[in-house]
Amino acid sequence: MCGIVGYLGKNEKKEILLDGLQELEYRGYDSAGIAVIENKQLKNFKAVGRLKNLRDKTKEYESKGFGVSIGHTRWATHGKPTELNAHPHMGAYSFVVHNGIIENYQELKKELQADGVKFLSQTDTETIVHLFEKNHNLNNNPWESFKKTISKLEGAYATLLITEADEETIYFAKNGSPMLIGFNDSDVYFASSDTPIIGKATEVYYLEDGEYGYAQNGKIHLFDKNGEKTFSKQALATDKAMAQKDGYRFFMEKEIYEQSTVMNDTMMGRLLDDRIEFEELDKDLFDNIVNIKICACGTSYHSALAASYLFERIAKTPCQVEIASEFRYKEPLLRDDTLFVTISQSGETADTLEALKMAKKAGLKSLSICNVDNSSIVRESDAAVLTRAGIEKGVASTKAFATQTMVLWMLAIYVAQAKETIDNELLSQELDAMRHTPKALLVADELHPKMTRLSKRYLHGHGFFFIGRDLFFPLALEGALKLKEISYLHAEGYPSGEMKHGPIALADAELFTVALMPKSLHYEKIKSNVEELCARDATVLAISPEPFDLADDFVKTTYDSHPMLEFFEMMVVTQLLALEISVRLGNDVDMPRNLAKSVTVE
């Protein structure tokens, strides 16, 4: 949630900030704003809604000469999406932007209000700038005031502050929310991720938790709890091609179509002729491990649920799956013979990161599965496997889910190899199915037009049931989530055998049931469950390689030799169904309401 950019240098600052925020808009699009200090003059602009509104508001403004500047695009956590609540937040002579949540802001706000400070917004962020100015008014030293301010903050934050009291400096601090610094000659850039500074900076430093400092005269002065420290820069990637739509209507659509390609990247160097290999994992990672616990949120949680079947079925290893936002509060029993696995597309998911820290504190080995190298979860973990999905800009995850599931499938085989729980015949079958997965992910020429036509039948009614058994229950949950996220229609995923235990009471002609009916896994069982719904007059869309006469609509799939091939092919069908229903309803497919791509708050 939320995106930060900053720039110190002599180039035109407005466009640098706006272009950077454009790259981060998927993190939040409730409001946006920029602030610039140039020639000792402070200017700021804010606008509610999408970034184009801020562009319109600043079209007459142009900055010239050396200066400092900060910008922010917001996903609301404290306070409604209004101009007053938009960042940057202003004191009497300073501006601040901030990602994360200041947990003790109410306490700080009361202290400041007791001193006569008047707050304009409903946000936690505004406490930072007022606390800084309170400190500065007492000691007239900007750097000491900033340090004292940071020392008072509790919670997660990435923050930039500029002030007329030191108009050629950007102050920064990072704890729990992502932020990096980019470099190009004497220019200095700040951002929440790489993409805003690709093509501008040539080198980068990824800030660690607890680091803070200031940028001045083209140089960075970096500190942590031990005082000033040296740091090493690394080369910044230069390829932005994957962040473009490439002719598709939506990023989500593009990302559905490119799943076949990125799956090859995910398997490259790992799927060998006779085994699965992960060069990034030490051979002893699974030594003395008798249990696997996976922790994740949302879509990642669904990939974890699917993996739990594979770990137990193939690797013969007990596997529990936890919702990260619940895990922290259940007082979990953690044993050191458990491998703690976290899954996150962004690597910044706050709930998952905190669960990981709990597990590490308890002495567990940790492994992360993530799409973003150098992210907080990757850096915090003992080991990491990257999904290699590339940039995913659609808020509703598609290729990230597919690649997470593939990594987990490969990991189940990898563990089975290590524990010798898989024979050569089964291993050969699994590896062969993996090799066919990219083909199962291809969108057939006739499939997308069919889903477009079908979508017009599913715009009303009182809800959807996505149902499946075994591996296809997590896929049903994911299909329902995709539809909810971008169509705003009510949808639930259920194990098909559970329908008769209560949910079937809802069945009538206005209840839409999406039935995942794989031929390779419990077909007769789920067929019986769907027949029960048909008998209650539910409207049924069956997805299966086997024709089903009772279905109102039928999508025929191709693969029926291995459950995972059917899993991935049906996954594509449910993604396209959600996409086309959302399009017909006139919704913003890539940026659905109330959601942000990276949830970096609890």
CATH superfamily annotation of the largest domain: Aminohydrolase, N-terminal nucleophile (Ntn) domain
Proportion in helices: 25-40%
What is the average of the pLDDT values? 91
Tell me the domain tally. Answer: 3
Report the top-level CATH class of the largest domain: Alpha Beta
State the strand order across the main sheet: 3-2-4-1-10-9-11-15
**Count of beta strands:** 25
Shape: globular
Major β-sheet annotation: 8 strands, antiparallel
How many helices? 17
CATH architecture heading of the largest domain: 4-Layer Sandwich
What is the CA–CA distance across the termini?
11 Å
**CATH fold topology of the largest domain:** Glutamine Phosphoribosylpyrophosphate, subunit 1, domain 1
- Summing up helix and strand content along with how strands pair, one would put the structural category as alpha/beta
| Computed Rg | 26 Å
What is the percentage of strand-forming residues? 15-25%
Low-confidence stretches: none
Brief account:
The chain is built from 17 helices and 25 strands.
Detailed description of the structure:
The chain is an alpha/beta fold and 602 residues long. It folds into 3 domains: 3-238, Glutamine Phosphoribosylpyrophosphate, subunit 1, domain 1 (4-Layer Sandwich), CATH 3.60.20; 240-441, Glucose-6-phosphate isomerase like protein, domain 1 (Rossmann fold), CATH 3.40.50; 443-602, Glucose-6-phosphate isomerase like protein, domain 1 (Rossmann fold). Helix content is 34%, strand content 24%. It has 17 helices and 25 strands. An 8-stranded antiparallel β-sheet has the order 3-2-4-1-10-9-11-15, covered by helices on one side. The chain has a 7-stranded antiparallel β-sheet with strand order 5-6-7-8-12-13-14, with helices on one face. Helix 7 runs parallel beside helix 12. The longest helix is centred in the C-terminal third of the chain and has 22 residues, at 563-584. It is globular and about 75 Å long. The mean pLDDT is 91.
